[in-house]
Automatic annotation (TrEMBL):
<dbReference type="Pfam" id="PF01753">
    <property type="entry name" value="zf-MYND"/>
</dbReference>
<keyword id="KW-0862">Zinc</keyword>
<protein>
    <recommendedName>
        <fullName>MYND-type domain-containing protein</fullName>
    </recommendedName>
</protein>
<keyword id="KW-0863">Zinc-finger</keyword>
<dbReference type="GO" id="GO:0008270">
    <property type="term" value="F:zinc ion binding"/>
</dbReference>
<dbReference type="InterPro" id="IPR002893">
    <property type="entry name" value="Znf_MYND"/>
</dbReference>
<feature type="domain" description="MYND-type">
    <location>
        <begin position="16"/>
        <end position="57"/>
    </location>
</feature>
<keyword id="KW-0479">Metal-binding</keyword>
Length: 232
């Protein structure tokens, strides 16, 4: 009996931006009504998070106003990237954590100044929502064309996450002119906890990212795939 091909696609569940509780089938979370980004399990959590979220909320609301017009190829591409992102969140957490070498706390400052930059290109078949790998690298925020206000807001978010013993890893995903910018928070852990969750430092994580996106994973990637499921 042939085995199903390895896949890094895992449909992510929403988590509360304040208490980090996971959404369930019977308890669906609501997003912030202004920027439509963070989700909350309750009104109480949303109120408690407002002090930290206020600045990024205003920035994200402004960004929404600059979105491509609905019905245009650019807006469709952005929607496709978001759907792709939701299925590869654990993959990006794994790669971002290893690429920034966060197993060493001395590298934590990178989360304030750098992003995991990923460039995708549509598959030759033209099937919507499916992409091929074009580039992947850790890049400075200001080298991605982000303005000073956005860079400052993302740096503040990293500082706020650090106060909660978390990292804020910024994902910058681009295909053509469409860009999706998404900070993801990851719980800090000591060296032993890190090894259990993420495995030893993975210097080949970008190669894994390329194979995962292009659906060319090998048997050697099986352990990495198992770790993605543990990050849910």
């Amino acid at each position: 009996m042939s085995q199903a091909p390895l896949s890094a696609e895992i449909l992510a569940h929403r988590t509360c931006a304040f208490c980090y509780k996971s959404e369930t089938k019977t308890h669906k979370f609501d997003r912030c009504g202004a920027c439509l980004r963070p989700a909350y399990c309750s009104k109480d959590c949303q109120k408690k998070d407002w002090k930290k979220h206020k600045r990024t909320c205003q920035l994200q609301a402004q960004n929404r106003e600059s979105l491509p017009v609905k019905g245009t190829p650019e807006r469709d591409m952005l929607a496709d990237i978001k759907k792709w992102f939701s299925k590869h969140t654990q993959l990006l957490i794994y790669v971002g954590t290893h690429a920034m070498r966060l197993h060493n706390p001395a590298n934590a400052s990178q989360t304030k100044t750098h992003v995991l930059f990923i460039e995708l290109e549509p598959v030759p078949s033209g099937e919507r929502g499916d992409f091929m790998f074009k580039a992947g690298v850790i890049r400075r925020m200001d080298e991605c064309g982000l303005d000073s206000a956005t860079c400052a807001a993302l740096a503040d978010r990293a500082d706020e996450a650090a106060q909660d013993r978390r990292y804020s890893i910024v994902m910058y995903v681009r295909s053509g002119v469409a860009v999706y910018l998404a900070p993801i928070t990851v719980e800090k852990c000591n060296a032993l906890e890190y090894a259990v969750r993420f495995g030893p430092p993975d210097t080949e994580c970008m190669g894994f990212l390329e194979r995962a996106i292009d659906k060319t994973l090998t048997k050697e990637d099986s352990t990495r795939i198992m770790r993605l499921h543990e990050l849910i």
